[in-house]
Sequence to fold (172 residues):
Amino acid sequence: LPEESPAATETSGLPEAPPAIAEKPAIKEGVYCEELLVIGEAEYVTIEPDGMKLAARIDTGATTSSLSATEIKNYERDGKKWVRFKVTDPVSGKILEINRPLTRIVPIKRHGAPDQKRPVVTLPIRMGPIDIKTEFSLTDRTKFEYPVLIGRSFLEDKAIVDVSRKYATSPI
Fold:
């Protein structure tokens, strides 16, 4: 009788077992998905210290967050550049007038529309347990569904987005 090959004997005609599954790779050294807040495609944010709660669209394609502002005026205070603007809560109609130092001006390229230069300010905001100061470009977003757009600079090392969810940090 011819001798069977060792491979045929070991596998008994069954496919080989898949290789062992490795542990989940780290997103960043020492940080795993389980340690980041899971947020939905839309969340509520609160502008502090005024407590105005606004709906925000999460946009991982945007670097900087954006806030719907009207009556945006640049001015000088103590030799430094500042910005005065109004934020309106679309639900209650409450209007906040906010004054902040100008952080920078950001050029915005828009498809099918002229490019813009928008002022950027730093604001303290809260989303669920995340309570930080972050940059917002100011523009009139009153024609959009969400008055706030949250970009990657806010999300980095704090949250991951589950697009199948909405308002995961503060259910309606």
DSSP finds two helices and twelve strands in the chain.
